[in-house]
Amino acid sequence: MMDTPYWEKELETISRRDLENLQFSLFKRKMQYVYDNSPMYRQKYDQAGIKPDDIGSLTDICRLPFTEKEDLRESQERQPPWGDCICIPPEEGVRVFQTTGTTGTPVKIILNNNDWEKHFYRQFMHFMKGYGITPHDRLYVPFNYGLHIAWWGLQAAFERAGVMIIPGGGISSENRIKALLEYKATVICGTPTYMLYLEETARKMGVSLEDTPIRILIVAGEPGANVPATKKTLEKMWGAFCYDDIGSSEISNFGFECIRQKGTHIIESMFYVESIDPETLQPVADGEVGELVITNLITESMPLIRFRIKDLVRFDRSTCDCGRTFLRLDGGILGRSDDMFQFAGINIFPSALENFIREMVEFSDEYQIHVPKQGSGNPLLIKVEPKRKEVAPEELQVTRQRLIDKVKLNMTITPMVEIVKMGELPRFEAKAKRVYRS
Predict the structure, then answer these.
(1) How far apart are CA 102 and CA 100, in angstroms?
(2) What's the Cα-to-Cα distance from 143 to each of 118, 146, 151, 232, rounded to whole Å?
(3) pLDDT value, residue 103
(4) Do 346 and 371 form a contact (C-beta atoms < 8 A)?
(5) Is residue 241 part of a domain?
(6) Contact 41, 71 (CB under 8 A)
(7) Which tens digit of pLDDT belongs to each residue from 391-427?
(8) What are the pLDDT digits (tens) for 252-261?
(9) Based on the number of CB atoms within 10 Å of its own CB, is 105 exposed (0-12), middle (13-18) or buried (19 or more)?
C-alpha cells in the first residue's frame, strides 16, 4: 500500500480537541471580519440580536442564522453586480466566476489575490496529496473554460505544484480521446457523467481506456464518485482509481477523497461543517443523514457563515486508515435535499436509483427518471437504453425485470422501466439532467 502523502501533516493528523480549538479561534475571527466588512452580514446579525462576542464556543454557533443562496441573490439584486455580501472593494478582485444558475439567477463570485493565489492553492494541495498525485503526473482537463468555477482552481494549483497541464477545451470528445493518448495523460478530471461518455466514445473509436496511462480520475459536480456501482464502473472502464472532489462555486472546494477511499475528507483546518435535519433545522448525530452546513474559515473576499449548501451527508469523525483525523463524509455527497422526491409515501434519492441502474451491465450509463405528479396515479418511470447492439431483446427484458425487482425489494415501490433505442438518451459534458418532474 502506498505511503500516505500529506500536505499539512500536523494539521491533518491533529487531535479532535486541538482541531476544535483551532476552528473556534478561526470562526471567531471570521465572524468579526464579516460583521465589520459585509453590510449583509451586519444586518443579518443585528436583526438576530447577536454580536460576534456573543459566540463563546462552537456550540454557540447554532444560534446564528443560516446563509441561503437566496440571500446572495437578493444582495446582488440590491447592489449589482457583487452585492453587499462581499468583504472587499471590487477593485481588489482578480478572478470572477458565477454559479450555473440551475436553481435560479446565477450568483456572482469574486476573489482577491490572496484567495486565488494563496487559499485556493492550499486547498487544492490537500486534494493533490490526498489523491497521490505528484509532479510527474500529467493532468488532462477536458472542458471548455467559462464563468463556471469548475476545474479552474484545481488546474491553477496543480500547475503551480509542477504538474503538467494538458488543456482539452474547444474540441470534440473524439479529439479529446486522441489528445489524452498523444500526450500520455496520467490524470483526468470531469463529471462522472462525462467520464462515462468519454469511455463510450473511446469504445466506438476502437480504443480501450484501460490500456492508456490514465491512473487517476478526479470527478466532481455529481454524486457519482461515491455511488458504489458508478464508481466501480468508472474504475473498471478506465483501469484507474476514481477519487471524489466536492465543493461549490459559492464556498469553493472543501472535500477530497484520499488514497484509502474510505469517505470524503473535509479540510477542517479551513472549513467548519455542521449537519442538520432539513425539516427541523436541528443538528443530527454523526452516522445519520443530514444536510451539510458549511462555514469558510479562511476566505477574505466573499466568506460565508453557516451556508446551507443543500447536500446530504453522513458524518464520520473516526480516524481514517490514512491517518487523517479530518471528518469524513461516509459515502461522500449522498444527494441533495432539494433533489429528493417523494413517491408513494417513500423518500427517494436519485443517487440510490442510479446505483441500481448502473448495476445492470446490459444497459448503457445513460438513464432518465420521470417523477409523476403526486396523486396522479401514474407510476415512477425509468428510461434506459441498451449498452450494445449485440444485447438480445430477450436479455434486455430479463434485465428490465431484474431492475424492477431490485428497486421493489430495496425501496418498496414498483417502477415502470422503458427501454428506448440505443443512443436515444442525451449525453452531457457537464452536469447531467436525469430527473424530470411532472
Answers:
(1) 6
(2) 24, 9, 9, 23
(3) 60
(4) no
(5) no
(6) no
(7) 899 999 999 999 999 898 888 888 999 999 998 998 8
(8) 999 999 999 9
(9) middle
Q: What is the pLDDT of residue 378?
A: 87
Q: DSSP secondary structure string, 104-160?
A: SSPPEEEEEHIIIIIIHHHHHHHHHHHHT--TT-EEEE-S--SSS-TTHHHHHHHHH
For range 125-134, the mean pLDDT = 97
Q: Is residue 353 part of a domain?
A: yes
Asked whether the beta carbons of 319 and 133 are under 8 A apart, the reply is no
Q: Identify whether 331 is part of a domain.
A: no
Report which of 330, 319, 333 is spatially closest to residue 263, judged by C-alpha positions: 330
Please report, as a single letter, which amino acid is at residue 29. R
Q: How confident is the model at residue 229 (pLDDT cuts 50, 70, 90)?
A: confident
Total number of domains constituting the chain = 1
Question: Which of 147, 145, 203 is closest to 177 using CA atoms?
Answer: 203
Q: Which residue in this structure is represented by grid cell 482577491? A: 112
Q: Which domain holds residue 419?
A: 341-437
In a domain, 160, yes or no: no
Class of residue 339 by CB neighbours under 10 A (exposed 0-12, middle 13-18, buried 19+): middle
List the CATH number of the domain containing 354.
Answer: 3.30.300.30
* In contact, 19 and 268? CB cutoff 8 Å: yes
C-alpha cell at 326: 479530518
Report the alpha-carbon distance of residue 102 to residue 81 in Å, rounded.
Answer: 19
Alpha-carbon gap, residue 378 to 364, rounded angstroms: 25
Q: Where are the beta strands (DSSP E) in 284-339?
A: 289-296, 307-316, 328-329, 335-336
**Taking the CA atoms of the chain, what radius of gyration do you get in angstroms?**
22
